[in-house]
Amino acid sequence: MPNSERLKGVEVFVAVARAGSFVRAGERLNLTSSAVGKAVARLEARLQVRLFERSTRRLALTEAGGRFLAACTRVLSELEEAEHALGGDGEVLAGRLRIDLPVTFGRLVALPLLAPFFGRYPRLQPVLSFTDRYVDIHDEGIDVALRIGSPEAWPPSLGHCYLGQEQKVFCAAPAYLAAHGIPATVEDLAQHAAIMYRKADGSISPWLIRSGEGRAAPRIEKTALDARIVAGNAEAQRDLTLAGLGIAQLPTWLVGGQLADGSLVQVLPAHATPGLPLHVVWPKAKASLPRVSQVVAVLCEALGDASDAALDGAVDGEVDAAS
Prior knowledge:
Elements: H1 3-19, H2 22-29, H3 33-47, E1 52-54, E2 59-61, H4 63-86, E3 95-101, H5 103-120, E4 124-130, E5 144-148, E6 158-172, H6 174-180, E7 195-197, E8 207-211, E9 219-223, E10 229-231, H7 234-242, E11 248-251, H8 252-261, E12 265-267, E13 273-283, H9 290-304, E14 319-320
Parallel strand pairs: 3-4, 3-5, 7-10
Antiparallel strand pairs: 1-2, 5-13, 6-11, 6-12, 6-13, 6-14, 8-9
């Protein structure tokens, strides 16, 4: 088979996988759905593997199809980058850039930093996803990700830049405290209405209780409480707390403004707790691509210099591309 035909089949496959439909892929490629279906069928016959599970209601990638999509995405991205380099576009960022961000932190903190960067490069095509679930960077074709929380050991294929830790505080609305009293000890929290966070896997995040004197080496204990309200979004938690419905433990990057204007009040300040670490993460195989390296630099520099409104505590901005 000529190389051009082989590549055409790959492009059609990727379009179908992204669109989730032969019809929508055909519209994007200016082909009929029949032509798209035949191209995919020829590709499956050549590879001798089924790439999609088809039914009258849905089209889904098989396990083999998912692996092939990740490989094809990398190959097409590298080809696109090579074209820009040959065209003398070394100083002009262009092409698709997949960025995955935590839902709330991404929208409130990261996006305002990224928007001016995107504006400087009109040929850049950012594709942003906002999710709090675990994202496999390689399998899902992500170029750069922001992650709150980190594994015990980073895979050797990923580079990462440590930005710092969240600072979590207990807070409530003045009206709630006027009606129910101010907790004097962490034991008092059990007598109050707790507004808890529901993670993407359905579990409830426990409160982190700081004990011990000083900030040097606090002991952090996880405490599960009966929640009055559970919300799967940090902004919703904050808004429910502002409405006077209970006490929540929230990061300072989310509630700094409300603590400053008095619409929320910090309680038990001695038990403010270091939260999860924040990292910028990228595949090492893509580190040489200018659009990847530059967006990594923007995020590491901007968030590494973040004020307390974004991250509280020491931020060292250390880049680790070797682990």
